[in-house]
Specification:
It contains eight helices and six strands; from the N terminus they run αβααβαβαβαβαβα. It is α/β, with parallel strands linked by helices.
Length: about 200
């Protein structure tokens, strides 16, 4: 994919104004996507770059409510998608280990902005750009990125560091999003940051 790198894009990607969100990279999901090894390789590169550039790094984590308080809508769709978090040991543990400098946000919806203080944190530290990696592209990544856009943040989706259990849905989601937000490969994103640092 040809990327036009201009001063405006470099400004949008400024590490001092950017946070990286690692969405639901949890054992049960990672083990069921269509490209586990490639996904983890690229996602770890983005995580390493965020740490190198001292960008705030957030890990979201599916945290189901107690059964009697859980949404019947969520239970219905979990059943439809055959997601049973209780059947697999450590199913909801994070596959990529956060450090003490990183933040882990427990959430109960497919948007990082609903039921959390994420938006307030972004405003408190002057973040204008949010880089999205994680699982699943067509669910939490897409809905959170759309919510970010609607709240005035620049959403950046790293196309080879997002994935899904459904490759076709993953590709359709990226196709839907390419005209409304910035989509970059891992290598393009890292290259832009490295070139900007040389200036």
């Amino acid at each position: 994919m040809e990327i036009e790198v201009n001063d405006e894009l470099k400004t949008i990607l400024n590490p001092s104004k950017t946070a990286v969100l690692v969405w639901d990279v949890q054992n049960m999901l990672v083990n069921n996507i269509f490209n586990t090894e490639a996904f983890l390789t690229q996602t770890n590169k983005i995580v390493a770059m965020a740490r190198e550039k001292n960008m705030p790094l957030f890990f979201s984590k599916i945290s189901p409510l107690p059964e009697k308080f859980e949404s019947s809508v969520r239970k219905y769709f979990w059943k439809k998608r055959k997601l049973n978090f209780n059947q697999i040991p450590n199913a909801l543990e994070l596959t990529i280990e956060p450090t003490e400098k990183d933040s882990v946000i427990s959430k109960n919806t497919a948007s990082i902005f609903i039921g959390t203080n994420f938006e307030q944190i972004m405003h408190n530290v002057g973040i204008t750009t949010i880089v999205f990696v994680g699982i699943a592209t067509e669910i939490g990544i897409e809905s959170s990125a759309r919510d970010a856009l609607n709240r005035g943040f620049f959403p950046i989706i790293i196309t080879d560091a997002v994935s899904s259990m459904n490759k076709d849905a993953h590709l359709r989601s990226l196709e839907n999003l390419k005209n409304m937000m910035i989509l970059l490969s891992t290598d393009d994103y890292i290259s832009i940051l490295q070139d900007s640092a040389k200036e």
